[in-house]
Each structure stands twice: as structure tokens, then as C-alpha cells.
């Protein structure tokens, strides 16, 4: 009965507003929000309890509900709701939040669930952007760490490759090595693959491309760090690193590199 | 009277040819002729092709370079290609281009050293 | 952006245009070089075999993703055996068709080709901008 009156009243509100007789029904316009606010506050503990989580998070959820109640249909609604949402949205499951909001909506018709969902979308988009930025920065840092390039002797650089080489990392590694070799005017590039757990046809292909590119710069390439099981696999699958000088370990690789650079003096 | 389509510098018995222009069929033809004539007239023993200013090397240019080196070899000259840019080197390697019959160097100094050491 | 390939100098024009576009879109230097080289190969194939054709360059953006799409079209003699042309890889014979195309395939992220003898050839290749 109460609800029916509101529906009827809202039609009247429109008509009366147009006739500029707002004053009479002002209290009714305020009524909707007041009604919702009262109902939320009255059932606050029940609604807070809809989400099972840590006390701190529950407090933020409670604050959020109060904010919705206080600021609905005011200028600051979006701003206030956004900031109270940001405090806890990453700490609870979106689906849990959604079902809690739906429960409240089922009990309070005026509960502005659509507007709240729109705001949730905006907040999530913003958080996603921030995360993407962090991911980019981490990728850069990883690229740098994953391909350390060290000048170990005059005209000799060492590149220890570490970790599994997927196509993006392999590409990054190759670009970094070539740039460094060119900038440091290296004569010998030692590539150490001790840190690469597995070399299959694809990784082998990346490595061969990198070796060939380095040779086009006029550098000699020394390959070190091939472990027994990898040596076994490489021959079985038919990969051949015959375009470079392969040395057993870093020490022999370095010794060889120094001997050829000294020769050229 | 020879048409000079590329600038050349003679250093000791070597000829340095910096590639600064876009190479097309006509210029390539003229360039190869010029180089071979200079090798002959100036008694050149080694050729250095400097590509440090070339930003794109596609299969055509690659072929041109190896072809030129083969011609120079016919006249008893070794060829060093120097100054391939890092991004160009990676592109060539990933395309699968193999430049045969030439040596590679990072700069003129290393190119000269290579030519000297081959001769010995 | 479309570039008509008819004279040899148009190959250089096509290359430069693609380079500028890739640079403006923020591609890495290595990828700019790759895309420009691929266009150079495609344009040269048009010039050499079809005598005349077009290179179309399109920017594709969807959210964070940026892609350059290159289309090479001609009404040339067409390629009889595409499989063979792509497999033959690079050889140093001046008139080998395969070298350019297989190179383009390796340099770009996606590669599509359709060709009919006596009708013409279309190649569509694209490269995504890498986050770096």
C-alpha cells in the first residue's frame, strides 16, 4: 500500500513540479530518500552482516552503506560513494558484493543499485589502469634483470640468459644484447645459458637468430653453459650451434675471449 | 669519364664506400661499375662498405651487397660490411637472410684490422 | 593511407610512410625497422612482378592494443605455388620470389596471402605494438 502511494505520488510529483507547486509536495520528494535512509540505518547491522569478512573490511562496507544512505540524490553522491568504495572493493569478492547489494535492493525498492553498479564499474576501471601501469613497470624491470649485460674485459661482454625464454622475453633479450654490444663496441659476446632450464626447437631458434644478428655486427659469439641433458636434447632434436664457438664453461669461454681480443692488438 | 654515384675514400690499399643514398636498380648498377673501376685503377686490395647510415636493409639490398662483394672478389678483393645497425641486424637475422662471402665489422677501425689480418 | 607503387622510388616512399606511422604509434625501434623492412619487401615484389599496385597502411586501435595493418595489392601475374614461395626462404638469387615473402611472414605477427595466376595477389600482414 505504501509503495503504491509512492508510485502514484511520483506521477503527481512530475505534474505538480511542472506547475511549480513544488512546495506542497517537497516533503514527499524528500520522502523517498528519507525512507530509504531510514530503512538502511534501521537494518544496518543486518546488511553489514551480508558480507562475511574481516572487521576492518566490514567497517568500510558499513561506511559505504551509510554513505549511500546519506548522499543519495545529492551532488556529492558519486564522489562520496566512489571514495568509500575504493577503501574495500579490492578486499572482497565482486560476486559477494553484488549479491549483498541485490539482497538489499530486494528489500528496499528505492535502493539505487544501478547507480552504485555504474560507480563500481568506474572504480574498477581506474584500478585496472593502475594495475596495468604497474605490470608495465614490472615488465621493464624484469627485462632489465633478466638480461644483465656485463662488460667483463676490454671489448668482451657477458650476457647470462636466465629463465624460460618466451617469445616476448627472447625478443627483448636480443634487442638489449645487440644494443649493448653495439654501444660498447664489443669484439666478443659471451652468451651463457646456464640459467635456461630448457632449450627446445623454438628457444633454439631464438638463440640462433640472436647469434646471427650479433655476428652481423662484427662480433664473435661464444656460447657457454650448456648442461649435459641439454646437450643431449639439442643433438636429438637436430639443433646445431655451429655458427658460434661453444665453450664448456664461463672460465674457458672468458679465457678464449681474452685470447682473441689480445691477439688483435 | 666515370660517373661517381657514391663517394669513395682510399685508405692504404683499401677502398671505403659509405652508402648514403637509397639504392635502386639504376644506382646499384652504376655503383658496382664505379667500385670495380676504382678497384682496378687504384689497385685496391680490400673493400669496405659502410652501411652505418642505412636504416633499412631488405632482401634486395642484402643481395646487392653480396653481389658487389662477389664482383670485388673476382678482382681479388675481400669485402667487409661495416656498421650494420643493431635493429637492422636483428631484422636480417629474423628474416633468415644470410649474407655470404663477406666479413662484418662494427666500425672502420675493426674493418681495417680484419682486412689486414686476412691478407696475412 | 594508400601508396601507389609504380616507380622504383615509390618503394622508398612506402617504407618511409610506414616508418613514420609506426613511430607515431609508439612502436619500438626494433619493431619499426621490422615493419618498414616488411613493407619494403612487399612493395618491391609489386614493383618487380606486377609492375603496379598498392600498399595500404591502417592503424588499428582497441583499448590499449595498437596494431599496424599492411595490405599489398596488385593485379600482377599471381603466384602459382604459394606454399613453395613461402617455403623457399631466402636465397641470394636476384629473381627468387620466395625470399621477400617468407621474410615478411617472419617479421610480422600475422600474415595472410591470396593469389591467383593471371589475376593478382593480395597480402595482409599486421604487427602489434609490444609493451616495452
Structural features, described:
The complex is a heterotrimer of chains A (about 260), B (about 120) and C (about 130). Chain A contains eleven helices and five strands; from the N terminus they run αααααααββαβαβαβα. Chain A is of the alpha/beta class. Chain B is α/β, with parallel strands linked by helices. Chain B has one domain: STAS domain (Transcription Regulator spoIIAA, 2-Layer Sandwich). Chain B is about 45% helix and about 20% strand. Chain B contains four helices and five strands. In chain B, strands 1-2-3-4-5 form a five-stranded mixed beta sheet, sandwiched between helices. Chain C has a five-stranded antiparallel beta sheet, covered by helices on one side. In chain C, helix 1 runs antiparallel to helix 2 and helix 2 packs antiparallel against helix 4. Classes of the chains: A alpha/beta (about 260), B alpha/beta (about 120), C alpha+beta (about 130).
- Taking all residues together, what is the mean pLDDT of chain B? 92
Structure class of chain B? alpha/beta
Q: Main sheet of chain A?
A: 5 strands, mixed
Taking the alpha carbons of the first and last residues of chain B, their distance comes to 35 Å
Oligomer: heterotrimer
Largest interface: B-C, 25 and 26 residues
Specify the overall morphology of chain B. globular
Give unreliable regions of chain B as ranges.
none
Amino acid at each position: 500500500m505504501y509503495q503504491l502511494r509512492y508510485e502514484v505520488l511520483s506521477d503527481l510529483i512530475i505534474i505538480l513540479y511542472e506547475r511549480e507547486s513544488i512546495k506542497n509536495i517537497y516533503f514527499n520528494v524528500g520522502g523517498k530518500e528519507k525512507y530509504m535512509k531510514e530503512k538502511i540505518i534501521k537494518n544496518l547491522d543486518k546488511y553489514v552482516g551480508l558480507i562475511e569478512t574481516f572487521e576492518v573490511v566490514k567497517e568500510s562496507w558499513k561506511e559505504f552503506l551509510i554513505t549511500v544512505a546519506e548522499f543519495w540524490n545529492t551532488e556529492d553522491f558519486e564522489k562520496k560513494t566512489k571514495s568509500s568504495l575504493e577503501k574495500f572493493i579490492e578486499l572482497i569478492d565482486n560476486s559477494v558484493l553484488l549479491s549483498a547489494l541485490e539482497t538489499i535492493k530486494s528489500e528496499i525498492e528505492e535502493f539505487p543499485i544501478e547507480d552504485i553498479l555504474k560507480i563500481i564499474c568506474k572504480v574498477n576501471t581506474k584500478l585496472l589502469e593502475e594495475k596495468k601501469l604497474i605490470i608495465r613497470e614490472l615488465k621493464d624491470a624484469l627485462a632489465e634483470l633478466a638480461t644483465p649485460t656485463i662488460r667483463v674485459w676490454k671489448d668482451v661482454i657477458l650476457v647470462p640468459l636466465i629463465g624460460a625464454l618466451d617469445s616476448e622475453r627472447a625478443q627483448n633479450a636480443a634487442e638489449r644484447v645487440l644494443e649493448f654490444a653495439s654501444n660498447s663496441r664489443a669484439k666478443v659476446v659471451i652468451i651463457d645459458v646456464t640459467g635456461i632450464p630448457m632449450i627446445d626447437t623454438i628457444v633454439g631458434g631464438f638463440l640462433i637468430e640472436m647469434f646471427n644478428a650479433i655476428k652481423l655486427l662484427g662480433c664473435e659469439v661464444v656460447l657457454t653453459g650448456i648442461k649435459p641433458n641439454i646437450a643431449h636434447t639439442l643433438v636429438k632434436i637436430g639443433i646445431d650451434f655451429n655458427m658460434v664457438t661453444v665453450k664448456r664453461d664461463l672460465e674457458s669461454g672468458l679465457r678464449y675471449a681474452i685470447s682473441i681480443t689480445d691477439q688483435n692488438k | 669519364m666515370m660517373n661517381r654515384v657514391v663517394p669513395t675514400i682510399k685508405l692504404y690499399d683499401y677502398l671505403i664506400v659509405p652508402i648514403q643514398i637509397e639504392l635502386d636498380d639504376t644506382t646499384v648498377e652504376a655503383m658496382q661499375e664505379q667500385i670495380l673501376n676504382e678497384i682496378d685503377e687504384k689497385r685496391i686490395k680490400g673493400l669496405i662498405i659502410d652501411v652505418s647510415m642505412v636504416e633499412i636493409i631488405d632482401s634486395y639490398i642484402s643481395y646487392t651487397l653480396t653481389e658487389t662483394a662477389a664482383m670485388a672478389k673476382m678482382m681479388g678483393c675481400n669485402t667487409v660490411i661495416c656498421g650494420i645497425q643493431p635493429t637492422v641486424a636483428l631484422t636480417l637475422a629474423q628474416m633468415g637472410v644470410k649474407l655470404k662471402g663477406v666479413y662484418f665489422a662494427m666500425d672502420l677501425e675493426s674493418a681495417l684490422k680484419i682486412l689486414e689480418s686476412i691478407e696475412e | 593511407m594508400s601508396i601507389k607503387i609504380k616507380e622504383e622510388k615509390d618503394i622508398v616512399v612506402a617504407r618511409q610512410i610506414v616508418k613514420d606511422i609506426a613511430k607515431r604509434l609508439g612502436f619500438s625501434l626494433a619493431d619499426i625497422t621490422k615493419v618498414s623492412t616488411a613493407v619494403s619487401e612487399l612493395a618491391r615484389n609489386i614493383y618487380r612482378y606486377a609492375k603496379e599496385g598498392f600498399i595500404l597502411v591502417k592503424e588499428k586501435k582497441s583499448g590499449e592494443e595498437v596494431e599496424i595493418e599492411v595490405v599489398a595489392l596488385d593485379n600482377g601475374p599471381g603466384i602459382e605455388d604459394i606454399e613453395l614461395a613461402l617455403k623457399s626462404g631466402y636465397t641470394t638469387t636476384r629473381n627468387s620470389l620466395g625470399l621477400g615473402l617468407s621474410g615478411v611472414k617472419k617479421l610480422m605477427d600475422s600474415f595472410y596471402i591470396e593469389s591467383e595466376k593471371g589475376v593478382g595477389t593480395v597480402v595482409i600482414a599486421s604487427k602489434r605494438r609490444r609493451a616495452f
